[in-house]
Amino acid sequence: MTTPRDPYGAERGPWDGEEAPIERHPGYDRYPPPNAPTRRRPLPPLDTEGEPGRAPLGPLRKRPVRPDAPPRGVSAPVPDDAAPPADTKRYEIPDETAHPQRVPRKLTVTRVAALRGRELTEKGIATFQRAAKADGADKSGLTALTYATMANFALDAAIAVSLANTLFFASATAESKSKVALYLLITIAPFAVIAPLIGPLLDRLQRGRRLALATSFAVRAVLAVVLILQFDTWALYPLALCMMVGSKSFSVLKSAVTPRVLPPDIDLVRTNSRLTVFGLVGGTIGAGAVAAAVAALTGSAGALVLAALIAAAGTYLSLRIPRWVEVTEGEVPATLSYHGEDEHTEVLRAGERSAVPPRKRRQPLGRAVVTGLWGNGSIRVLTGFLTFYVAFVAKATEHRPLQQAAMLGAVGAAAAVGNFTGNATGARMKLGKPALIVVGCTAACAAVALFAVFADNLLGAAVATLIAAGASALAKVSLDASIQDDLPPESIASGFGRSETVLQLSWVIGGAAGVLLPTDYWKGFAVVSGILVLGLIQTFVSYRGHSLLPGFGGNRPQHAEQEVPAGPRTQGDPLR
């Protein structure tokens, strides 16, 4: 895996081993020079005179004194009937210890609590802004993308709360399951057809990626308003489909934009982990809690109003992403399949040049990336399955609503802890062999799914959720590392878009299984365990250089070269 770039020195920004000319970061000019002064003026010289053992002090500032003032410690005699002259100028010494914050005349418990709350809020906002702008993210544009990503997570959480309140919690067990099954039939099934087309369509988008991100929010804002008016009709299902397509389109676009707002001090792996953590904490958890509270007070309509407001804010935040993300000149699209040398395809070796323009070339994914995709896809099937399945099992128990909420809360807490732990671990560990880490994560998920089959209770489901969430986050970080190490710079953005499409489609398949399978723990986990075992076998054989599916496995080089349609080319010229 490549090492982090050096932002300073004679050649700021190159990777180790990179040759000139260097393709610098689009926002490179916004960074300060390496020898930028840290102070506007030099510090005054220190006074070397002083007592031993004490730090020398600078000259003390003298206080203004009246010319006619008596010596210090002596009071001038003042007659009893004497009045101060009218033109006497009064000298007041300012109190330098006064607190800059305005304090009310009368302090009460309420006012003290309000002042303390305001102070803590300001400190929390300042800490959040420092974290969002760390490592030069404010200059590269990563901070703006972080805010837009948080808005997307928050919007998904608000929509999920509003739909769950109507499709799930407001109905009986059989009725809610039929409603959600119908929802999946009308929304998930078309999305399974649309999802593979999102990546290639967005790859053709040469200009206007910021506008496309903003449009994904603006369309969902309008759909949220329409949902408020058509929530109890059949229009709910196609509108929900459009919501899902907009959300997944943002995810694919975000993956393609991220390499272009990368700060010079951190790599893509840590950047994606940072975006995920900010989205989970500030979006899913924070906005999800607010949406749940609003839905409890005002119903699903209130949560949809909140969703519309979040979508409007996301539109504005997307337009604040820097303009240099529009620069796509020279990009070569990535492809999942591998052809090699045949009658229709030629491979561009190192040092060769082709007359085919970059947009007509194809960059096959290497063996490590394909291994990561198979492993991550298998894990996403399990996480999508758990998202719906545990909720329906809790609903089928026919316990009181409080007990059902406790069951869902336990599983949700396990998912949150696992996801956060996986991202934090992946951001700090050295990913020397990311493909091998993916194989291990897939094996752990298959093992915990089998454990849930024999446990046949809520504890087994909670443990499976904890391990699956952590393994999913760690495997995704490893996949990002493989993409960064395998693909050339001109194909990284497209590679991230392709991988995100595969992962979203895998999650959809798992979610459909979670709704359609019986609500007995051992039956549902037995089916998903079989899927995971097959995925583990394909992941392992891909890692070993073989495949159960020709053309979509590991029977390819570790680092594949670009492919072009068969035709004339010039030998000996460097590939541009």
UniProtKB/TrEMBL annotation:
Record keywords, A-Z: Cell membrane, Membrane, Transmembrane, Transmembrane helix
Q: Which PANTHER family match?
A: INTEGRAL MEMBRANE EFFLUX PROTEIN-RELATED, INTEGRAL MEMBRANE PROTEIN
**Where is this gene product found?**
Cell membrane
- One GO cellular component term, please give it: plasma membrane
Name by which UniProt lists this protein: Putative MFS family arabinose efflux permease
The molecular function terms of the Gene Ontology recorded here are:
transmembrane transporter activity
Q: According to the UniProt entry, which residue ranges have a biased composition of type Basic and acidic residues? A: 87-99
List compositional bias (Low complexity) regions by residue number.
76-86
List residues traversing the bilayer.
153-174, 180-199, 211-229, 274-295, 301-319, 368-392, 404-422, 434-455, 500-518, 524-543
Q: What does the record say about its membrane topology?
A: Multi-pass membrane protein
Positions of the UniProt region annotated as Disordered: 1-99, 554-576
Entries under SUPFAM superfamilies matching the protein: MFS general substrate transporter
Species this chain originates from = Nocardia puris
- Highest taxon listed in the record's lineage: Bacteria
